[in-house]
């Protein structure tokens, strides 16, 4: 037996999986369905649902994670530049479609989180552009015990460390 989108929303609201505001936002989104697709702005959905655009964004995020709605981001050309256009939405009713959409959404969230973590990691002091050098961090030369004895003997004889054979940073 197939469910309609409205009946799914009702079931999720009654089971407290989604809030009443999310229910209203998703109902408002569904009311924009037309022959050319579903692509209202966050402001249009907010006006129809009686809430703020930020509430619409939070509610849509919940819908993406549950696999109820699939979003396709669109780019348009304005004044010779590519800018973000309105999103194209698709309401999902079948369980298999919902599971695929939810998995796709979580994978995208994971990629974005890893990119943010990598960015933070590369901004730490040890990896700052001024202090980064292959010799200093990753490829620091190691000396065998006999080489250390030769280096120390050379330094005691008055040689500077580089001349004595030391390959590290001074």
Explain this structure:
With 170 residues, the chain is mainly alpha-helical. Helix content is 54%, strand content 9%. Strands 1-4 form a two-stranded antiparallel sheet. The chain has a two-stranded antiparallel ribbon with strand order 2-3. Helix 1 (5-14) runs antiparallel to helix 2 (20-31). The protein is elongated, with a radius of gyration of 29 Å.
Considering the chains and any ligands shown, give keywords for the structure.
8 helices; mainly alpha; 170 residues; two-stranded antiparallel sheet; 4 strands
What is the CA–CA distance across the termini?
75 Å
Q: Which structural class do the helices and strands define? A: mainly alpha
The portion of residues assigned to helices is: 40-55%
- DSSP E strands, number: 4
| Strand arrangement across the biggest beta sheet | 1-4
What is the approximate shape? Answer: elongated
Average pLDDT over all residues: 84
Quick summary of this structure?
With 170 residues, this protein is mostly helical. The chain has helices at residues 5-14, 20-31, 42-49, 53-66, 95-122, 134-137, 145-156, 161-164; strands at 69-72, 75-78, 81-84, 88-91. 54% of the residues lie in helices and 9% in strands.
Set out the fold topology.
Blueprint: H1 5-14, H2 20-31, H3 42-49, H4 53-66, E1 69-72, E2 75-78, E3 81-84, E4 88-91, H5 95-122, H6 134-137, H7 145-156, H8 161-164
Antiparallel strand pairs: 1-4, 2-3
Helix pairs in contact: 1-2, 2-3, 2-4, 3-4
């Amino acid at each position: 037996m197939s469910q309609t989108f409205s009946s799914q929303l009702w079931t999720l609201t009654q089971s407290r999986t989604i809030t009443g505001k999310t229910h209203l936002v998703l109902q408002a989104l569904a009311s924009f369905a037309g022959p050319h697709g579903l692509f209202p702005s966050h402001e249009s959905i907010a006006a129809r649902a009686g809430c703020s655009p930020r509430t619409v964004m939070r509610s849509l995020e919940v819908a993406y994670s549950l696999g109820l709605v699939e979003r396709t981001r669109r780019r348009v050309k304005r004044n010779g530049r590519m800018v973000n256009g309105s999103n194209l939405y698709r309401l999902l009713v079948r369980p298999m479609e919902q599971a695929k959409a939810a998995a796709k959404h979580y994978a995208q969230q994971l990629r974005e989180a890893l990119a943010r973590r990598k960015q933070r990691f590369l901004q730490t002091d040890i990896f700052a552009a001024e202090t980064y050098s292959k010799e200093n961090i990753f490829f620091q030369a190691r000396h065998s015990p006999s080489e250390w004895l030769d280096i120390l003997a050379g330094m005691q004889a008055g040689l500077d460390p580089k001349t004595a054979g030391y390959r590290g940073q001074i």
